User: Fold these one by one.
Assistant:
Number 1:
Amino acid sequence: MTANSSAGERIANDPYIFTLILHQCDRPTLSTFLRVDRQLFNEAGRILYHELDLDLNWGKGATYRTRSLSLGAGVAVEGSTSGYTGQTETKKTLLGHVRRVQCSERLPCSNPAFAAIFSLLPKLDLLRFWAHPLHQCDSSSGSDTPTGRHCHLHQLSSHKVVIDVMHNELQYATKFASITTTAEEVTVVLDYSIDFVMTAFRDPQGLRSHLDELKCPGRNTVVARWEPPVRPDFSNRSEEQIEDKIEHIIEPSTSFATTCIDLGMEVFYTAELNECSMEDPVFYNRVSLDVINARVRKKLQKKHGRAFEAPRLIGSSAYYLQLGRLDDFRRNEMDDIRARFHERLAWDRARAWAATEGGEEDLEDR
């Protein structure tokens, strides 16, 4: 580069500035840059293919096709029922840039194009997928999927694995133990509900077995997306009946958390139990994470000895958000968690103000 070089030439030859500029481009622009020259191909490809979001849909001839070139690593199965495209050096180079893979709803068990993709991917930073009974896959058997094919996800390895589990389908997640046990960090995200914890409460050994099978040697976390129960009707009920209702909610949640913590897993509820019934002071004051944590500590001390101190108890929404665990959820899901937390925080402040300044009748007006 000479002294007479233009500002544009100097910027183009500075890799740091050049990369910053490319990061400001949208995906269609980056896709266009792939075809300009080798330098732009490498730099734009590294940004464009950093995350592979396999948002699948049905194409012609009952074959999968990915939503676009940029999101599908260039694979297009346009109406073809045989073979796949993309076995080129260009494709291999781009796939070498992939560090994060996310699968939603349908796993690509039936499409040979994904076998080609996954066989070329390096070790990932993040693999996130849903465990679902329609996608029963086993690394030791290639014939237990609905299509009779082996699930290609088993070709992948990742530093961190996040598994979404729908309701009572935790047993299906264990089909992917070959992926989780070789990871350095595993997060199991549960659609947590009273129905789920009641099932787990009835079969604690089964729950323990499933979670233990999914553990990795490193950090293991269970994140429970709380689905609020119907608020109990406490009107015209005796104190004993109220206690029975509260116990119906607290004890299964306590047993579930105790099992996870006893296995060395961190546990987070992304919404506190009392969040669903803030307007009811009886329910609000008796059902909380503090109550459950006290019971969990008591159960663990009884099992391991009075001197036992649980290293990790249930974490609150506030602590979970402070950790910045953005990989555990998609962006819109994390935004929902933040919104619920701030709503609860505003309610707590309103209750405190009403108790000290305006009285409970003012709180009803709010």
Number 2:
Amino acid sequence: ANTGAARTATLTIAGQPFTVTQAEAAPTCAYALAPTSYSAPATGGPTSVAVATSSGCSWTTTGLPSWMTFTSGDGTGSGTGTVNLTVQANTGAARTATLTIAGRQFTISQAAGLPPCVYVVTPTVFNVDQRDQSGPRALTITIQTASSCAWTASITSGGSWLTIRTGTSGTGNGSTVVEVARNSGDARTGTLIVAGETVTINQARN
């Protein structure tokens, strides 16, 4: 067996030259990955792994979990190449998987998904008495939620006499201040949507 470069020998058999040529030995394949691990955010996204090896050395990828896919190709190649992967968003507990790429281990861990946002809006009903109101009146609505949870506030009815002064949007705990104009006519009702909750404002007649 040949363990080196291609080689040729010439023999003389019965006075005639006879040439023997032997192909070079198959390359000894060594593989290296970069990086060998990756920490993915809960939102997921693309990542890639570089495979370094000699020309002619083939390789494959196995152990792909259900929450990862190949961005392109099928995770196989020959010689130096790249494995492109996409990590799906995580909505549950933290998770880890170990892939085998070119016979080497590649470990990927993903952070736990964020819990669904829950909002506590108070109060959800205001009864505004006109007797002590000589001008516009400010009402404060408080919002309690996780620091990563966004919210908005908007008037859905009563826009002619209700005005949001502060707090049309926010993230985490916050408040919305609504100004109620003095009523010069009949009793009326206005509504807002604050962090997905309906807030009702009842104003007595003048």
